[in-house]
Amino acid sequence: MLSELNHTRSTYMYSSLPRKLKMNWRGPFSVPEDHTDEPQQPPRNVNIMTDKRVVRGSTLGQHTFLRANPKQNASRQTEIQRRGRARKRAEEYQSRVRLIVGTPPPVQGRLHMDVQTDDFLEEIFLNPETASTASQTDPFDEVEPPPFIRPPPGVDAATQILPEELFDFEEELKPIVDALVSRTLDQSLLEIMNENQLKVNVTPKKLTQNEAR
């Protein structure tokens, strides 16, 4: 009985070979969910610049994801080649049509005739006669045109005025001369009075100054 108790109380021990942790892409150092010895697969390329499922360009347009479908790719290549051949045939036909000169031949029982359809009759020819002539002209200087002057409205009229009819110099000059003479006399008298007043006021002052010295 004691041996059984000692055996049950003994420590459990387990050891295994060292191994690498399985990387979980949810975190840089995540612990793997299971500890099975499965062969590790190479990490997937998570760069969105090299992911074909990422659509590049404007988000307003409608994009479709490319799928690896060999039948669809083959049918698409066939359609592209068919359209290229049809485009080439159309271009060849257009070039042949451009090379056709003139009108098509007439139907059976009819003939083509040249008819003048212009209002004025003129001779139709391919190579008209030409001649060269020479002439000499003087150099022409470009001159600006004269400015436009509007003619005056109304009717012009004329009249005659005698030399002394509107202004008589002798009569019109008298009041001006009288005003000038009177103004000059007044100014002269005022200056004389000022000089006399200065003499009367300055002389007593000089006498008092001389006495003080």
Automatic annotation (TrEMBL):
<keyword id="KW-0282">Flagellum</keyword>
<keyword id="KW-0966">Cell projection</keyword>
<dbReference type="InterPro" id="IPR009290">
    <property type="entry name" value="Radial_spoke_3"/>
</dbReference>
<keyword id="KW-0597">Phosphoprotein</keyword>
<keyword id="KW-0206">Cytoskeleton</keyword>
<feature type="region of interest" description="Disordered">
    <location>
        <begin position="63"/>
        <end position="91"/>
    </location>
</feature>
<comment type="similarity">
    <text>Belongs to the flagellar radial spoke RSP3 family.</text>
</comment>
<dbReference type="Pfam" id="PF06098">
    <property type="entry name" value="Radial_spoke_3"/>
</dbReference>
<protein>
    <submittedName>
        <fullName>Uncharacterized protein</fullName>
    </submittedName>
</protein>
<keyword id="KW-0963">Cytoplasm</keyword>
<dbReference type="GO" id="GO:0005929">
    <property type="term" value="C:cilium"/>
</dbReference>
<keyword id="KW-0969">Cilium</keyword>
